Amino acid sequence: MQPPEPPDRRTSQRRRGDAAEQQALEYLQQAGLTLVQKNFLCRGGEIDLVMRDGNTLVFVEVRARASMQFGGALASITIAKQRKWLHAAQVFLQTLQHQPPCRFDVIAIEAGTIHWLQNVMTG
């Protein structure tokens, strides 16, 4: 007899976020990018997906909203969030022996539609 599965302790918001990240990952992989790391965390920031596009390292922020109400997914990326994203990218780059070309992309999922914005921020 198999032991029962442990209950899923993630919040419904976290489950939706995980599903959006998975959807974004699959979308980017279909576009030819390869996964380097998911959910890179450091003190002061996080990166949802670190991908490779040829020789370019891509730091991806995934945002999902059920509707465009209140500005939609893109409007939820505040200046404070951008600073944390940039900080986390700098910490990630410190783990590498050489620094490849980099860019910052956003996957915005709004009402089930995926929007891929490339090179949205410079460091």
In brief:
With 123 residues, the protein is an alpha+beta fold. The protein has helices at residues 12-30, 72-75, 79-94; strands spanning 34-42, 45-53, 56-65, 102-110, 113-121. The chain has 3 helices and 5 strands; from the N terminus they run H-E-E-E-H-H-E-E.
Largest sheet: 5 strands, mixed
Helix-strand sequence: HEEEHHEE
What is the CATH top level name?
A: Alpha Beta
N→C terminal distance? 54 Å
Overall mean pLDDT stands at 85
Number of strands: 5
The helix/strand class is alpha+beta
- Molecular shape: globular
Task: Name the descriptors.
UPF0102 protein HV832_01250, 5 strands, tRNA_endonuc-like_dom_sf, alpha+beta, 123 residues, UPF0102_YraN-like
Can you give a write-up of this model?
- With 123 residues, the chain is of the alpha+beta class.
- The chain has a single domain, classed as Trna Endonuclease, Chain: A, domain 1 (3-Layer(aba) Sandwich), CATH 3.40.1350.10.
- 32% of the residues lie in helices and 37% in strands.
- It is built from three helices and five strands, in the order H-E-E-E-H-H-E-E.
- It has helices spanning 12-30, 72-75, 79-94, and strands at residues 34-42, 45-53, 56-65, 102-110, 113-121.
- Strands 1-2-3-4-5 form a five-stranded mixed β-sheet.
- Strand 1 and strand 2 (45-53) form a beta hairpin.
- It starts with 11 loop residues before the first helix and ends with a strand.
- The mean pLDDT is 85.
